[in-house]
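We read letters as residues; the fold follows as tokens. Both lines appear below.
***
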Amino acid sequence: MMYFSTNTQRDGMEIVKYYKARFQMEYNFRDVKQFTGLLNCQARSEEKLNFHFICTLTAIDIGKAIARSGLNRSSTLSISIKNIKTELSNYLTLTLFLSKFGIDRIDPNMKKNTECINQILQFGKIAA
């Protein structure tokens, strides 16, 4: 693979670092467009548009923070915003069902609940 730069003073490893960062930004913008409604804003004022952009980007950051919670920073993780959205939706649905049956909270520490809760939360997620 070949990388190019108009700055002739920049070394090759620095160019590769910038390309990697840009590639990650492209993923972030794709996720923001697909899953948080970046393009669905109908505001006209600059302040409202800025607020909308910041909210959608923050939603992606929060989703990634949830996915990485409990993991080492050095470990790699394939993060799918669609899977995070599916799991949070499943959690909301599960808590709604349980509240309708008069169960106020889920105790994930109970051994017999752990596997069932994980199966429900994983339902509908795509394989990475």
